[in-house]
Amino acid sequence: MTLLGVRNLRVHFPTEEGLVKAVNTVDLEMKGREKLGLIGETGCGKTVLGMCIMRLLQPNTEVAGEIWYKGRDLLRLSEGEMRKVRGREIAMILQNPATSLNPVLRVGEQIAEAIRLHQGLDKRTAWARAVEELEAVKIASAEERAKEYPHQFSGGMQERAMIAMGLACDPALIIADEPTKGLDVKIKMQVVRLLKEVVREKAMLFITHDLGAAAEICDRIAVMYAGEIVECAETSEIFRNPLHPYTQGFLNSLPNRGLKPIPGVSPSLIDIPSGCRFHQRCDCATEICEEEHSEMVEVKEGHFVRCFLFGEKDA
Amino acid sequence: MADFVSQFRENRTALVGAAVILLLVLVAIFAPQLAPHNPIKASLGDRLSAPSEKYPLGTDHLGRCVLSRLLYGARISLAVGVVVVGVAAAVGVALGIISGFYGGVLDEIIMRLVDAMLAFPSIFLALAIAGTLGPGLGNVMIAIIVVEWTRYARVMRGSILSVKENYYVEAARALGASDFYVVTQHILPNAIAPIIVVATLGMAPVILAATSLSFLGLGVQPPTPEWGMMLNDGRLFMRRAPHLTTFPGVAIMITILAFNLLGDGLRDALDPRARTEKELR
Fold first, then answer.
1. Tens of pLDDT along A66-112?
2. Is the model more confident about A227 or about B52?
3. Where are the domains of chain B?
4. Chain mean position to CA A261
5. Distance between CA atoms of A169 and A118, rounded to whole angstroms?
6. CATH C-level class of A2-101+153-314
7. In a 10 Å sphere around its CB, with 0-12 CB exposed, 13-18 middle and 19+ buried, how is residue B213 labelled?
8. Cα distance from B175 to chain A (closest Cα, Å)?
9. Three-point CA angle A248, A253, A259, nearest 5°
10. What is the pTM (predicted TM-score) of this model?
11. Assigned CATH class of B10-274
């Protein structure tokens, strides 16, 4: 059963320098309880995609396409209906926990707030639930810790508090936006393991540029480049048999695979290259790559790639 | 917060300001107990007498005790200051929130209105409004509120603009919070600090404006004791009885100075930029 279906989504921001085409013709499909990793380098539009699903972008953003969630197109919901979806149905764990927690509110209050917004519980019950949520994310002596302010928490604990906030209303889908960003390796592994454990019964869109963390958690991985998905397959398939030259380059830039960077820089989202977006940095580029834009091709069951190297064979 | 308290404690002048204000408040509250005479009772036999044992600060042209009138006058000045600043801040904060949070056309309308108000010298504008409304303390207060709300609206808008960009605002939205909830629970508590400073610094101009308008005969009507009006009454007798203008003038000066010292101290303690500059020195 499809839980989330993103169809032909485009997100453009008008700015003074020009139209920023942050997300272009993105299609995504997620089943209930599926963990999908959305991978790409900084500035490729992954966060925008997540924010767009939550409908948290600025009102002047141009959004086209459809986002189906449990049979409803989120882009057509009123703001009031959308508020009921946020937190209760789909929760987002934002990046930068240090700044995503309000400095003047106790951590427990901020988690209790999520519960009270949706479930109308009284303060004391909501507080008790908040403490339980903190226990669930393995914060020691949660009772006392809940009374503390965010600056008294370490980075890893702040991240866990954010996860607790996201889980507080038991949403069906979690969008985690780089939850491991800025954490040291040991803490990162703890957070990843915790996340894996607490979302076992839920679906999760895991936005990251950390392939290791994605491999640990995700069932499938979608690779994003310059605002579009270039390859999508099961996690093991992506690692064993990466097809798109960008995916290969991305994997080869990992420390344990040779630390070879991809030449060039990722293109500006205002002035996107014609043809294949990756052709300027691609070793295998041919004439057709400069002129035409490839469609997504299913190379084998469940493995999609957007590249002419494979399109021609099947066509 | 503890940082703020210690910062504030080190600032001697601000502490002096706070102490003087406290003293003024006590004087205003206990004026009936402290005053040696009835402030509005004329005793024509003692007209324009110099300070003496019976009248510590002398008497005015109707033989009323200047000290008693000054003590009672503190009530009016402080009450006017508190009420006007309170209402002006409430109006300004509300409009500033709307302006900063929603932006767009509403922001343009409110901010152009503020610009228009600021284009006039405030005391002339207040004078014009009070003159149109007619004399009386209530009208003077309305006139000053109309002029004063702008400074709160501007400061609040700026503060909101920076606070609303924080991730925790987005996080609250991601949990399904409404605009009202986000503003009252997340933005306002983080944005209100500058308003405290502006309100403290705003007390002095308000009290000064109220005394000025009373001096010009628009505010409190006789025989109620008010510092500005006392100055005006004493003006005619400046040569024969300089104490009639000196003492109310000194009272006004001390009050204004105290509020400004406190306001400066609060600003230094709450503004991180001013703080680092001080530490560098």
1. 999 998 999 999 988 998 899 889 999 888 888 888 888 899 998 99
2. A227
3. 10-274
4. 23
5. 7
6. alpha beta
7. buried
8. 4
9. 135
10. 0.75
11. mainly alpha
